[in-house]
User: Fold methionine--tRNA ligase from Candidatus Wolfebacteria bacterium CG1_02_39_135.
Amino acid sequence: MEKFYITTPIYYATDRPHIGHAFATLHADVISRHKKLQGKEVFFLTGTDEHGVKIAEKAAEENKTPQEYVDETSSHYKEVWNVLNINFSDFIRTTDPKHKEGVFKFIKKLFDSGAIYKDKYKGLYCIGCERFLAEKDLINGLCPNHLRPPQKISEENYFFDLQKYLPEIRRKIKTEELKISPASRRNETLGFIEAGIDNFSITREKVKWGIPFPEDENQTIYVWVEALMNYVTALDFPDGEKYKKFWPADLHIIGAEINKFHTVFWPAMLLAINEPLPKEIFIHGLFTVNGQKMSKSLGNVIDPLALIEKFGPDASRYLLLSQFPASEHGDIKEEQFIKKYNADLANGIGNLFERVLTMAKSADLRGKDAEILAFYQKIQDDYSQKMNNYQLYEALAAVFSFVKKLDQYINTTEPWRLIQNKNPETEKILNTLIFGIKNIIVWLKPFMPKKMEKAENYLENLGQSSEKLNLFPRI
Ligand code: ME8
Assistant:
């Protein structure tokens, strides 16, 4: 059986998950379900990033130890993923002993590779980003992402000699041995490399909440360096059976703001220790809410649980993935959720299924309409291509153009009239519609697994239930 290893970013255990985190995780879940339906053996990893200054600060604000704090915040992620029906294979926490063990082994190999050296460092550090910023990155002296001034830091750190690996990374990206999609993000990475990227430190002095650096007790491992290693420590790097079976990753899914860490730093660390690179990194855009960055102070952070309470888990999955193409940045307008729910789900799929299933109960079904069949084939090809390129929004758009086509087909053929007149054409029309619905169910299964299962069961027992399917009640 062919394997498929897919990962999400591991999210900072600083707070409850918001719909941005859900967006990335849903992408991975839908792709993972789609690959399983294609018969692949899938390993789907998600988890939480639990070390660093930011977490230690948050814990202190709440008078908790960092460990107590992350135990609580990490559990929120698990809770929300459970309600959203995210079917992960493993949930890694960077405070897991297993992660720490793997990190030590990775660091030892890095050290042995000769790519590590000690140096004095002076720089500007943004705790929100957990990274050093250059003067040119600041806007009015503030980090543009977190709108707070960076700390001036002067430390002695261990550094990774990135320069040694940049030409090879560039070559692998160009030949697509390391595929970065969409192409705009690939060009962005090539642009970073072209402009020059400094070596980065792999340790921090004075940061207590982290994994100790085995070579020097005054240092902890830089949070980003050990966080990236989660993708292999979860598989029991370097000797575990899972590692041998599933590495390299077939797909890392990440957001645009963490591009450089994944497309440059992570491959460079793997190159240094002679391990295979991930095959593909898919970088999705970030979204604002009603035109503004989501932030607690603006009060516009959307909690996935609030969305689920209103629309249920499957519709919430759909609503988040159907807003805009993941290859671009987007804006979510809250009032659009209800409109889209009613238009696409209640009046679109729900209504189509109801109309057809009510009529089909009484008919003897045979034959198919040639034009609809040809249209179906076109949509099937389009859907497969989009799903294989991880373009979920575009795949959904293809499915919905088929829903529309079937609606038009019903309106022009008016099968309800034909049933009354006992017209022989009815069998063919209803059979075509049932065929269409069955395929819509298959296409939408990775997106709305529970609802599609319900529809599938209803279809299998057609004529036996007096109750309506009522898949998406109007809100
Ligand atoms: O960066 N729109 O964690 P994080 C869409 N721990 N997606 C969004 C989003 C938004 N507005 N906001 C967040 C970290 N995301 C590190 C990762 S990986 C080894 C370490 C999603 O909690 C998006 O996928 O800040 C983004 O990359 C991720 O959440 C960052 O989550």
